[in-house]
Amino acid sequence: MASSIQNNRVSAPGYCVCCRVCNMWCWRAFKWLPVLLIVSIVTWSYYAYVIQLCFFTIESTVQQCVYWVLYHILLMMFAWSYWRTIFADIKPIPDKYKLPDEELEKLLSAESEDAQRTILENFAKDLPIVTRTMSGSVRYCNRCVLVKPDRAHHCSICSRCVLKMDHHCPWVNNCVCFHNYKFFMLFLGYALLYCLFIMSTCLPYFIRFWKGDFGTAASAGRYHIVFAFFVSLMFAISLGSLFGYHCYLVANNRTTLEAFRAPMFRSGADKNGFSMGAYNNFKEVFGTSPNLWMLPVFTSLGDGIVYPLPQQDEDTESLLSSERWERWGERSRPFDERESSSYDEL
């Protein structure tokens, strides 16, 4: 563990600083490609729908106006949610979770893993944390040199620990976490509605195209409309499944990482350890004001550090605790390499 911390602080000898800076900027630019792809598709869809369908194809003025207004409302909400998801202010872990230099020196100079575990336990005794590693030790990030708050994980793409990390999404070039999870949910929901609206309003013209009575063969505009139907159908299928899955996660108060590996408490692993009931779980993400639920403004409850827990019977807690230590007592030590799961490093 000590060597891994030291290796993070020392650059490889002879490594060219210019090459490192160049690689860093190239990597940053590369990460924006998925976002640019989404923006390009939406820009083309605007041309296909507003110009080719509304202006050049639909003959009824009333129908043009209705389609035009509804389309722009959905586009505005979709773009607003997408923007907030990408550029959300992801706040760092509070300083009280970071090991001071003197504690870090003690940790590095400890002669045994039991001594390291004791140092972390003493440091974290006043911190509001309830989750543990599989071996029962304090969750510690040797890259950020801090004790992880509950539901926080280290993102290897962002190179930092993130509060209530769900996953790193390349399509928004950001971590989906406590600070932007509501925006991400609205982004998925409005993107799905956007695709369904385009698909349903283009469907009659696709049917006409299929029957051979939609425009002339020389009319290029009709191909934009038909292609818009297929693209919106394809995205609607993928977005529908993803949005439905995250609705399930919200209802059960889980993150994607917790769905794959249940959080570990002193009483053992519990996939419903943070669930307070479907409605309370929904309010934890979307807030208590119904007027703001559908708007991409931050209304999530809490601070991303401390989470309410369901009440548990003391006898049940004691029984689960004894069973948990019998089950995990022979597992790996706190800093065993097997403990460094990829789930904590995503």
UniProtKB/TrEMBL annotation:
Residues 323-346 have a biased composition (Basic and acidic residues). The lineage of its organism: Eukaryota, Metazoa, Ecdysozoa, Arthropoda, Hexapoda. One of its GO terms (molecular function) is protein-cysteine S-palmitoyltransferase activity. InterPro entries: Palmitoyltrfase_DHHC, PFA4/ZDH16/20/ERF2-like. Belongs to the DHHC palmitoyltransferase family. This is Palmitoyltransferase. GO terms for cellular component: membrane. PROSITE patterns: DHHC. Residues 139-260 form the Palmitoyltransferase DHHC domain. The keyword Transmembrane applies. It is a multi-pass membrane protein. It comes from Galleria mellonella (Greater wax moth). Keywords: Acyltransferase, Membrane, Transferase, Transmembrane, Transmembrane helix. Residues 316-346 are annotated as: Disordered. It holds the Pfam family DHHC. It is an enzyme of class 2 (transferase). The DHHC domain is required for palmitoyltransferase activity. It is found in: Membrane. The keyword Magnesium does not apply. Its EC number is 2.3.1.225. The chain crosses the membrane at residues 32-58, 65-83, 183-206, 226-245. It catalyses: L-cysteinyl-[protein] + hexadecanoyl-CoA = S-hexadecanoyl-L-cysteinyl-[protein] + CoA. Its main location: membrane.
